[in-house]
Amino acid sequence: MKSAFLRLWGMPILLGILSGIGLISALVADGVGDVLSWLILGLLVVLMAWYWIRPVRR
After folding, report:
1. E strand or H helix at 47, and its extent?
2. What tens digit of pLDDT does each residue of 13-47 get?
3. What is the model's pTM?
């Protein structure tokens, strides 16, 4: 069973780490790093759109 901390903060921490990796990769790396940053940052945009569009469960 997951702790209450991980249930509440696990996904925001993961998204923050991914966005940091994507932004640093875009600033520092060329070639493969650019592709990595596009993929990671694009994934974050897709996840935000999916959570925004999905119906609310009550």
Report:
1. helix 32-53
2. 999 999 999 999 999 989 999 999 999 999 999 99
3. 0.79
- Which residue type is seen at 20? G
Tally of CB atoms within 10 A around 47: 13
Cα dihedral 34/36/40/42 (nearest 10): 50
Contacts of 33 (CB under 8 A, 6+ apart): 25, 26
Locate 48 and state its tokens. Answer: 């935000």
| CA proximity to 39, closest of 53, 58, 19, 9 | 19
Q: Is 23 helix (H, G, I), strand (E, B) or coil?
A: helix
